[in-house]
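Dear colleagues,

For the upcoming journal club I promised to circulate an example of a predicted protein-ligand complex. I picked one with flavin-adenine dinucleotide because it came up in last month's discussion. The inputs are reproduced below in full, followed by the predicted structure.
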Amino acid sequence: MDVNRFDVVVIGAGFAGLSAAARLASRGARPLVVEARSRLGGRATAFADRETGALVDNGQHVLLGCYRETFAFLREIGAADNVRLDRQLAVTMIDREGRKSRLSCPPLPPPLHLLAGVLEWSALSWRDRLSIAAMATPLKNARRELAGGPVKAASADETVEQWLVRNGQTPRLREMLWHPLALAALNQPAERAAAPPFARVLAEMFGGDAEGAAIALPIAPLHAMYAEPARAHIERRGGEVRAGAAATVVTDVDGGAVTAVRVGSDTIGTARVVSAVPWFAFGDLFDREPPSLRATIDRTRRMAPSPIVSVNLWFDRPIFDEPFIGLPGRAMQWAFNKSAEGGDAHGGHEAAAPGEAHVSLVSSGADAMLARTNEDLIRAAHDELLHALPASRAARLLRGTVVREPRATFSLAPGQPPRPPAETGVKGLVLAGDWIDTGLPATIESAVRSGHHAAELSIAH
Ligand SMILES: Cc1cc2nc3c(=O)[nH]c(=O)nc-3n(C[C@H](O)[C@H](O)[C@H](O)COP(=O)(O)OP(=O)(O)OC[C@H]3O[C@@H](n4cnc5c(N)ncnc54)[C@H](O)[C@@H]3O)c2cc1C
């Protein structure tokens, strides 16, 4: 047995595990990170495209200005320059009839900047614009709830849609603003997702400064954006990252305390483990199921997944200038201009040849898309662009690829099992991951907050 070479073993190298290990390393501990897959990054990673070898993200990831722990993590590992943060929320939207407009929030204190942006938004009638005022009180309540007040902004058994209707949001404003925002933040349609996590997201976005709602896009393939810099940070401080090997947690006979982690034929003695695996892998993590975790494991087996499908299209010329555009009311709700981001890479070089354009279209809450064939999805994505952007008719589609992530996030529908806290009844075991009870939906920020919290708990133990 390999005893005590490491202070903590972190299992899983997604945002949660890497942020936990980076924080541990910064605090002088020596973490060992064990990752089952050969590539780091978990559900936020990039892979080499089979046809061209170009590095393609497993799906476009968007960060928000209110992702404070994520930005702290990126600064800690020296990777803050790998994302480009706008100063405030500004989005180009093309509605189902093909009308283009721009929602641009001026630099006013929130939520006034949203109110002012919507009042100026040409996509809406005056009645639609004015209905935003009815959200002032729910937003204020959401911010008070976030600050620990007794008020509840939304009830746990109502959906986002019911909450928006109850608060007087018109069908057009729901379709153009709230539905795309809810789908992007929750990865579930407003008619299915529960309202409280959405109210929480709005409180974070519109609660601090105007930058809270601004969008940040990675400018490098995802694993290079944060996972490899995190590995370098951890290893520079005496930790280690081992990829390509699944870990099993070994406990004492009654399952009351962690004693070791098994990785292949290697048994690493340790009294401290951070589990940073996704909810669907948690039940298989133990050599024998600790009795105190039975209820948590049972709940993870009842958590429903929510998929994301991405379609990547390469054209012989650029088809739009913006970094991204919203396509509300369509099956693919956002189109990202990967060439404009400078995010394409092929062994360090641009994946799209000069003059070509790489566009990534995203379908969130994509249950209905999973079973469709690649050809069908590529055709559907191309058709959406042809309809929304007449200029794209002049461009030749060179090729397309599809990425399906059936378990991209967990469902936030009312009635889903409660999420567990970080601390467990097993001595030495702390939980991290986007699915831990952070109050946030399954996002990078939820993963990183849980990772940082787990690191602090492990150090304190
Ligand atoms: C296509 C897509 C688009 C998304 N878009 C956004 C977005 O725009 N904004 C946003 O904030 N969030 C987005 N998300 C969600 C975000 O990616 C996740 O919330 C986040 O990456 C979860 O990180 P994690 O570390 O908790 O889990 P994971 O990334 O799942 O990492 C867990 C790791 O544990 C490993 N593992 C499992 N079992 C074992 C074992 N026994 N031993 C060793 N390793 C193990 C897994 O291989 C995995 O690498 C998106 C997700 C997807 C899939």
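Two points we might discuss: The chain has three domains: 2-47+220-303+414-460, 87-93+101-213, 305-410. Confidence is low (pLDDT under 50) at residues 343-350.

See you all on Thursday,
B. R.
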